[in-house]
């Protein structure tokens, strides 16, 4: 038994060290992509800030695009998890849309770095190549799941589909908040949280009723 414990302990330490290094690279990359941009931040910037060798980076991620994809998956996954909780807690179908909007605003106010990264990735999606294709697949999966969650609020006979509404929620929320965060700062936006929720609710409810995007 003692022999087994002695052989298991080093493996456990190695696993914990690898997990810690992986998380360190992700945290630093998230910060740098938010501050410098996904186009301008380089692998060397990430490893320098993390105080790790460049070779260490490639043990965990085969390219900068790969770590962007992992960050996108993690961020969107966390956002969906919070959205699912909010939708389940909605007291009626009519409250589902409001719940999805509010949780998205709160998520981005809590994690403004994800807000800026997501906004940049939307531009990256227009590029050609496997990296952009991978990111489109991640975003598409997110929108499909979001559409399923808000479907009770859309219902039959509406001028827009649940998928169109999910796309509008994602685009309107990140677009509106990104510009206000950039020009007014996170704290100013946080103080006006309720205002932005109401603005988004009004725009999206109008779209739900008429099928026309607000002017």
Overall description:
There is one protein chain. 82% of the residues lie in helices and 0% in strands. By secondary structure, the chain is mainly alpha-helical. The protein folds into 2 domains: 1-61, Orthogonal Bundle (Arc Repressor Mutant, subunit A); 64-215, Tetracycline Repressor, domain 2. Helix 6 (112-124) crosses helix 8 (162-184) and helix 7 (130-154) packs across helix 8 (162-184). The protein is elongated, with a radius of gyration of 20 Å.
Any idea how many domains? 2
Q: Assess the beta-strand content as a share of residues.
A: under 5%
Main pleated-sheet profile = none
Count the E strands.
0
Draw up the topology in text:
Layout: H1 2-36, H2 43-50, H3 54-60, H4 64-89, H5 96-110, H6 112-124, H7 130-154, H8 162-184, H9 186-191, H10 193-210
Q: What features would you highlight for this structure?
A:
elongated, 0% strand, 215 residues, mainly alpha, Tetracycline Repressor, domain 2, Arc Repressor Mutant, subunit A, 2 domains
Describe, in short, the structure shown.
Helices cover 82% and strands 0% of the residues. By secondary structure, it is mainly α. The N and C termini lie far apart (72 Å).
